[in-house]
């Protein structure tokens, strides 16, 4: 089993360390929740990181020493038997490569760090821990995949597939006292694991989805406390997930399916005397499909009959004579990998705001928020009473559910009561996107207290906050937050409600960058790049959807190009060079594939989607048919390919592939020349048919000749400001660069108008029409229901990037990725009067809180320890500036155009500027 060096970014938790009290400096854990847990790391040389906390200004790390040991006792004694880095003179505190002894299968590793700063030494009292997973296929070889390869009487393989859950159990006898125990599980498509009746872990919908013919993720849990000497019971429930596809035998040329649920499991036990035993899945395990979960289908919902519950099925005192022995089954075929991304969890709860009776005797429950997850139900009734809950995002005019936009997704959960007092139930293996629920069959009159919404998405930290003086912009931010987290499902999906829910690449081309300010999405997107790589064809082609659950290979530029732009985001925001080095050969392969097959006369004459979802001429249309609104596909694909060549030049340097740079340069020059020859109208200084997208792409990508940049920009401004009367006219592609380009060329005020608009088409129009997430279409409340999801993120474009970088002034200097140096340059004149924003970077918390009046600007700034900031102030007169109550001195600033630029070390600052 080959292992990549630095397979994924591994950031290990390091608890708060002691410090000299007078310095008020400590080291704390860096985003340890990025890991599913510290068990089973699938990396030979993990990268270690830490953050420095300081209550004093101007703190710089000057050196570090890492100690790594095989036991906690050795680490506490400073016996670094695995690695002692020695004192390393460096200010780097993230992505430090482990360079110690080779780490072995299942090995426990303990480590700590001491740092030296310009304020003194910080010594470690505490430690961090991780363990290595199963590194070789051979170690899995004697663990057999088991399952039940039959359909039950109510199951169906059809367009509306039904399949009952598989329940498996195995009684084991541990002959000695347990010292340590870990379980390694691959449960396809979804699993829940129990030991002695207790669920292991708080994850849901695990593991994360992949193309199971390419790679299969295993989860690892420390279960020492769950086991005892003597008899123990292992139990699992297997659901369908993406393994047994939601639409079996329906468009098999398009929809991928992998078979019936199955699993492989190892329980590794170390006894107190040092001996070990491994319990594996084999045909002695018992299985039944005659349990309470009658069907679980992500599109259609879950059906549960509580009368069929098997009390104690996952404990040792259960009669399983009616169960059958599991069968050995074919393995999925994919490479076994430790899951380095977090599983999904219940990340919050939503209480309904109302419930109303309908004329037909049902009830409509309103959650008050379009959310993603499921309902927990509390109910009393007779055995056999059946409660049905149907989920939707909105209502029709008559108050009934609006379900036309769900296509053929049934989105219905059914619970049959056992009739034993209050019953509490929630589904296990599905999720819904919904605000409203139609409840029928409830045995009494329900109230809002009978229901709780469970919010489900990947267990990742919220890292960004944003508040401004504009109420519409604030609500748009909130809508974006709810939409983004709802569409994190072990991969970024397009929508959570209809019969799609696919990881479309084009939705995240720039969106992933904006999302990274709100959520710690580093490992989610690093995993997704692997999904894309694994979907690459032998000749180099990339899909539009990855994992390729839908077989969409369109050979366009803008959707597959996301492979490169997301990798660039991971480098820019998280300083992740290793993900670039890992993916670079496959990115280059795709770039060459597109050039060889589709570059004609130095232009990329291949496009599939155009500027997807521009505001159409009719409110009922999904896609515009007006040529004046549509941007030439060749312009889009050629401009994008040119932009990607620029990123690949940077990647080649990072990957020590300098020989490729000349090739990228030469091709870029050829494309630039051909692009302007074909698309630039020299008489009018516009591109193609003068859509905003046709002009913004060459402006944003540096394709416009220097002597006419301002003229092209002014023509684009006229199109936005006059022709479109200050409204959006771009689709998915143009919107990715619109806000930043307007601001970078001096029209932040026009960008602000687009961001704060309330009338159609705009983000604010969605808000004014009751949206609590972001729509798929600018006219999502009136368009043909076959494509008007009310929870999409693709139309956010670069809006969130603009919020943080241009309004809050929180941007990573491209020369020092990962916010080692922060560029703080808000557009104070755009239209806002205050912004209060924060971002938890890999180095620590960044804050920008500014408020302006007619005569004064007050700005509170926090710069994390071991970083610095370039702070731009709207004045050229130093006497107008007061920094932490004092006048600034000449050595701390310089004049940059119309701004005074301060270079500030880490710390907290109050800046006052007279205007």
TrEMBL record:
Keyword S-adenosyl-L-methionine: no
Keyword Signal: yes
UniProt domain Alpha-L-rhamnosidase concanavalin-like: residue ranges: 357-457
Domain Bacterial alpha-L-rhamnosidase N-terminal as annotated: residue spans: 176-346
Reactions it catalyzes: Hydrolysis of terminal non-reducing alpha-L-rhamnose residues in alpha-L-rhamnosides
Listed name of the protein: alpha-L-rhamnosidase
Domain Alpha-L-rhamnosidase C-terminal residues, every copy: 809-880
